[in-house]
């Protein structure tokens, strides 16, 4: 089944800039150039809330992982934290000196990272609402910044045509990806945390491995790409473009699956729900649309095995890599056309692979436990040596 339009929300009075689902999919938040943040109820006949407080266009919105807070960034240079209820109360964060283009919660909900036209990326604590530190190496507006799923890295994209990878602890830029020919509008981490995808005004979507810092896939479109979102399974990517279309890319096969026409005028933002069965889009036409994913139904079983830890890093999917932009197209084989024997062999292979993956996971965990123990032992050893030094010094004194 193809993706289908499920709901249609009208209420913004200017271009929609950002959309995000709450954890339980009961609510959808959107930001707009009309300076308002709106929270729509996914239940029909339930009223939408309009949150007023920003003095200028709202550029970005995001629900906290728990869904109890919504963060927004605005052209009024502030970041606001809202409680998504009737009262619409909010607290204001001030530290940027220009438009705030992007807000993103860490997966534990403890920190927020923001990106701004003041060329900096800032990290804040949510509960104390305190500014922690800035990352400043971009030499132009920063359009987007995101935490990695484990919260250890930050990725940012900028009008300086680079995508930068930062270590949150050392606060240093570990790598700059400079392959874009235009501004980089949007960037995000793959759910596995092993690669990133970036969308640009050069009409491309590029995926890089962040461990080897190499280009994995390259999709060439024919219009500026404004936004992208990974399906939670990590197998698909949806993009929003200036040609008014949403495109769904199959990352395992490295090809375009669907082109969806819904918006009149540029599609500005897009986001999958946390479970992946819905996605929402916003456009310059002031409309917010909610789509039923549908295509993950045929992949139900595939998704289950994917979740056990496989990633789009080319390590267990051949034909995913796009060196020099060559697409390896694989055609889907119909089940009916294959003999039962073949299907059985494939099923047992899949099982074996899943088992191996499971074993690998166990090994990875074991290794990390061993590493922790080693660190403890090293610390103890250091302590012993220091004590010995002290004893010797005392004796000589």
From TrEMBL:
PANTHER family reported in the protein's UniProt record: POC1 CENTRIOLAR PROTEIN HOMOLOG A, WD REPEAT-CONTAINING PROTEIN 55
Name of protein: POC1 centriolar protein homolog A
Chain positions covered by the region annotation Disordered: 306-343
One Pfam family named in its UniProt record: WD40
UniProt entry keywords in alphabetical sequence: Coiled coil, Repeat, WD repeat
Biological process terms in GO annotation: cilium assembly; microtubule-based process; multicellular organismal-level homeostasis
Record's GO cellular component terms: centriole; ciliary basal body
WD repeats: 9-50, 51-82, 93-134, 135-176, 177-218, 225-259, 260-292
Residue ranges with Basic and acidic residues bias: 314-326
Species for this entry: Oxyruncus cristatus (sharpbill)
């Amino acid at each position: 089944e193809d993706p289908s339009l499920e709901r249609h929300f009208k209420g913004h009075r200017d271009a929609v800039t950002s959309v995000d689902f709450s954890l339980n999919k009961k609510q959808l938040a959107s930001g707009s150039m009309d300076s308002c943040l709106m929270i729509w109820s996914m239940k029909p006949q339930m009223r939408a809330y309009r949150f007023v407080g920003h003095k200028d266009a709202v550029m970005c919105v995001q629900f906290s992982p728990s869904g109890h807070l919504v963060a927004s960034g605005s052209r009024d240079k502030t970041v606001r934290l809202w409680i998504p209820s009737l009262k619409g109360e909010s607290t204001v964060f001030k530290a940027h000196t220009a438009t705030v283009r992007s807000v993103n919660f860490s997966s534990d909900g403890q920190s927020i990272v923001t990106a701004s036209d003041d060329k900096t990326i800032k990290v804040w604590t949510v509960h104390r609402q305190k500014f922690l530190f800035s990352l400043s190496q971009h030499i132009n507006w920063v359009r987007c910044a995101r935490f990695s799923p484990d919260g250890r890295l930050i990725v940012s994209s900028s009008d300086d045509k680079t995508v930068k990878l930062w270590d949150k602890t050392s606060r240093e830029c570990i790598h700059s990806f400079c392959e874009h020919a235009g501004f980089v509008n949007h960037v995000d981490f793959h759910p596995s945390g092993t690669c990133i995808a970036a969308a640009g005004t050069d009409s491309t979507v590029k995926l890089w491995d962040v461990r080897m810092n190499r280009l994995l896939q390259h999709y060439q479109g024919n219009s500026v790409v404004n936004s992208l979102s990974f399906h939670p399974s990590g197998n698909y990517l949806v993009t929003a473009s200036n040609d008014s279309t949403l495109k769904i890319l199959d990352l395992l096969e490295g090809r375009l699956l669907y082109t969806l026409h819904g918006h009149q005028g540029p599609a500005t933002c897009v986001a999958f729900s946390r479970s992946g069965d819905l996605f929402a889009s916003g456009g310059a036409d002031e409309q917010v649309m909610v789509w039923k994913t549908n295509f993950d139904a045929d992949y139900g079983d595939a998704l289950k095995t994917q979740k056990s830890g496989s990633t789009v890093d080319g390590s267990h999917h051949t034909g995913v890599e796009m060196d020099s932009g060559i697409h390896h197209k694989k055609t889907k084989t119909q089940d009916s056309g294959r003999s039962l024997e073949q299907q059985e062999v494939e099923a047992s292979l899949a099982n074996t692979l899943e088992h191996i993956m499971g074993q690998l996971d166990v090994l990875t965990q074991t290794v990390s436990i061993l590493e922790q123990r080693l660190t403890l032992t090293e610390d103890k050893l250091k302590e012993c040596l220091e004590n010995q030094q002290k004893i010797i010094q005392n004796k000589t004194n």
